[in-house]
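In keeping with the milestone schedule agreed at the kick-off meeting, the structural modelling team has produced records for the first pair of proteins. Each record is given below as a sequence line and a structure-token line. The laboratory manager (R.T.) confirmed that both were archived under the project's standard naming scheme.
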Amino acid sequence: MPTDFTMPKLAMAMNEGTITEWLVADGDVIEKGQAILTVETEKVAYDLEAPESGAIRILVMAGETVPVDTCIAVIAATADELQAIDPEAGPDPATRAAANEHPLIAPAAEYADRVRASPLARKIAAQRGVDLTAVTGSGPGGRIVKRDVVDAQPGAAAGSVWTAVDTSLTELGRIPVPGTPRAGIARRMMASLQSTAQLSSFWESDISELIRAREVMRERAGAAVSVNAFIIRAMSAAIADVPIANSALADDEIVVYESVNVGIAVALPGKTKWDSALLVPVLRNVQSMAVAEIDAGMKDLVRRAREGLLTADETTGSTITMSSTAGIAPPGTRATPVLNMPNAVIVGPSTPQDKLVPIKGEAAVRTMLPVSMTFDHRVLDGEPAARFSRALHEYLENPALILV
């Protein structure tokens, strides 16, 4: 009996995966343990191995995104057996469907008009009102796949994250989206904004003492500790004061977490020279770490994120997020970071700058850090959100409190 090869669940939070590349051709004879395709989740790319030897029929093409447990290929013991169950082979689909009870065989009615299309292509066509009989398929044997339907109706559609473009303008170039990190980023950002009640607040914290403490640590240890490590430590201390900031809305319950697992937004190069990508590795159990430990763990995660060495578990399970633009954005920049679902809070420190500020009636030059914070108003009301931001502000301004 042929074996269904389904989209695996590679991480606890994974709901779908994108096939970025098939490493074998349709109909190839493959060996158990052989890498046969690359799958990209919203965060990490993986090479998947064949679960057994045999001949493979590819059902979902590169560039398509499908839910977990969707059958993406079928593996038969021999090429002859594979041919016998192929719904596209032979002249008599009705006889073929009746003779084979394999779940991949579609009803004969599907072939009445000889339109051959993937299930995802049919779904998108129905949503967009695309006539499949007028679409030319680019899949195996002329099968219509997702990209064919999308190309058949340029412009925005209901639920689309893209809008139509003016084709009369001169273009510098185009960045392909399907099957790339940009597609996942677009879906996550739209889902976050559409399904949560986001509110942002902004303030400045005087981190002059923090900078001095950092210099003392550098002199003693011989290595610099990142300001971001202090910020993460301050976030953890503020959560101890206001635990609701470390939570998520799950169905009709608010889940308040014990462990502080900080998602750290990391910028990555994109597929082209114009594009960029984003990954959020997770530093776990920050509540039990000192600043130096946070710094070491954070730098290790960032390095491996940029080298493509993270595991699936290292990109899931965050309870709060930090997205820093320090050193990249102009000094004093304030932004509205988008929530990293399902986290209820994201903190966005930016580039500090030296400013004249009043200290006990006297003007003094102090290093001021702009901080933005977005929270989910379904989970936090303004009062606990304000208490959390105030606690974070005080820990940043008084680093001795978080160095003990």
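The second protein of the pair:
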Amino acid sequence: MEETKQSYYLVVGLGSSGLSMARFLHARGKKVVATDIDGSRTHAKKILKEVGVETQIGFHDQKTFDLAHTIVVSPGIPLDMVYLKTAAQKGVPITGELDIFSKYNKTPLIAITGTNGKTTTTTLIRDMLEASGIGTFMGGNIGTPLVEYLMDDQTADMVVAEISSFQLDLAKNFNPQIALLLNVAEDHLDRYNGFEGYMESKWSIFKNQTSHDKAIINQAIAGFETRVSNISSHLFSFSSLPGSETIHRADAVISNDNIRIRTRGASQNIKPRPLAELPGVHNMENIAAAALASLLAGGNIEGIMKALAAFKNLPHRMAFVRRVNGITFYNDSKATNTNAVIRALESFQENIVLILGGREKGTDFSLLAPHIKNQTSNQNNNGVKQIIALGEASTHIRKTLGKICPVLPVNSMKDAVTAAHESACKGEVVLLSPACASFDMYENYGARGDDFIAWVNGLVKGLKNG
């Protein structure tokens, strides 16, 4: 006799998002079962047991999947997992946190996605709105699960949410009132069926918007003109491309150290660089996108300028560490794809010793080649003079880039920092910008960046002791 579906929601994955989702659904009176293949999730098991949620930790049971009323998948869980595919074939609905949040949320929402710059832009929007007198809740992929807002005894004028492609993959009804697409570059190709599949995921943030909603999009994204013709919302664009104002009619135009914004029938100028610790054209684009979103959400120029004046660059994102013997060290551990590395390289005029490597995600390191100048032929030509290759990707990096730049494979961050210090000269830069995930050696990119900082500081101690 065939068993029938049960009344429970099955939450798959008990990281911070899954744990919050299980607690939220239980608080809403739903029967919840939570499962995670990772046997170390004992803390989550304890928390959920205390509120009466059944858990299956260290294993998955296909029957538990097949008999669920609905499966709620956490963002990091591969959607081609056999347990999910089998349950889907048996008609079990599969959803994610964005649709669950959308079902219960009543607060206007600004959603930010893109390959790079999401966290910086999300934080800037929060700061700009707060400085304009608009109360916000900030969450999503940035760290605080969105359903935490629904569980807290608080209200906000606006929810500002960083959204990843993994979250969008399961979103059928998600509809932000203001949606931002900052950029799209190759990333997570180990999860998607080619770059086109990844791009489709990013653009899907607009699919449920109507003419009452607003889309803010970077004109530099490949296929911009074709893609925007298929969205229903009111388009606002930003651009640092030549001719952005006169030819492309961007609503926010980046030119040198100035951003010119057109909203509400008037033009306003923002000159953020003297005020903010945000180097590079890519950060000017982040500021332009954030300012547009803030103005469209009811913020004002005074609030925008106040937020920029107080803003400090976020950890592990082109963050200055210190100078050692006239060599400047920067921690850009958050750069987990080649596009982020390219943007970092474009921010410097000095010679660079570049620390690359980690766990690959279908990474095409050849994309870096045009931005790494051959120092062996012209020592006066500023660019990357030495690559230090770290982690699982070191062999791939050497094979791909070794003909245009010297590549030195190393086995640890200590060796990477030591070798970089020995390779660099006074007035040059050592840049940790890995283009890879950190999981071959570290728990996350933050741990990798912290280790880099520790060994850079260790150089100073070693020099003093020597």
